[in-house]
Amino acid sequence: MERATLLGRLAQPARLDWRAARVVAARQETPRVRTLVLEVPDWPGHSAGQHLDLRLTAEDGYQAQRSFSIASAPGEPHIEVTVERLSDGEVSPYLTDVIEEGDLLDVRGPIGGYFVWNPQPSRPLALIGGGCGIAPLMCMLRHRASVAADAPSAVPPARLLYSARSADERIYRAELDGLAESDKDLRINYTFTRSPPVGWSGYRRRLDREMLEEVFWPTAAEPIFYVCGPTLMVETGATLLAELGYPPTDILTERFGPTGESGP
Amino acid sequence: MRRAEELVLDGNALAGALSQIFVSDVTTARVTCAACADIGSLGAARLYRAAGEVLRCSRCNAVLLRLTTAPDRIYLELTGMRCVELVRPQTSVVE
Predict the structure, then answer these.
(1) Which of A7, B17, B31, B58 has the most CB atoms around its CB within 10 Å?
(2) Is B45 on the interface with A (CB under 8 A)?
(3) Which domains does chain A have, with CATH numbers?
């Protein structure tokens, strides 16, 4: 066989290239948070928990790029990213306030194999999210619901602990309520760290050991934890879980710095 | 102003930039810190971002990696890692 032919027949691992994506819809989630629905030609598919890079190019050629978790479930026709506006951000205000349906931007992905969930029925899914860090966890819950619709026994039970400053700052609120109502194996707990609603009887404080013990399973149940949110929350959560005796390899973390401005 | 600690990201955010250099996914790479010999996933190490990217050991905070991207080239310094263990990409002969 000729050398060129042989080389051609060796499947090359796909390099990640930038693709032109189109915004096909945008949803306001909270006053500061917006979800962009993207049509990405030839999207190779993603796993729950992966992210992508978005790149914007100004008229003068200046480019800025950031990483965003993918919020839509694998297999959905469009890709969704959820962006929080940072007042001093360079990219996020454009994505939350300016970009609209029909606009184009560059996408590179999917990226990352570390913070990824593949359903294992025997390993309960334990999710801890803070603020916009809920996005990759939402992808996992959507993926779990979609797999369970065809094969209920293929997914483990799931619990989500969602920390938000106030009830109004909960992202995906209606969808999360709907998922929890229709699925007895999914339990969602909220903690409101700044202004809990009047009459709220649930958690109203930052993560602590007692909260984690109350919300999640004992170590013998062998849950896998995915912790995503602001750095301090993630480090507190991961440290407390390790102290509670969960194996460090079962505690996966993703720090969201100031949300939306993460990534190179 | 935000406190510096709030600006810390992690190695997951480096994956896109490093995919220009490495064929394998780097977030699952197991790296050994040259300073404290701790072994961990690159995705879990702390990332500090300024003019360039600085990845630090989540145990001892020593520098593992520095990455600077200029318009026409990339500078990558890896002296802080004693060993990098990457999963080989799937290179199979297509019949």
Answers:
(1) B31
(2) no
(3) 19-110 (2.40.30.10), 125-255 (3.40.50.80)
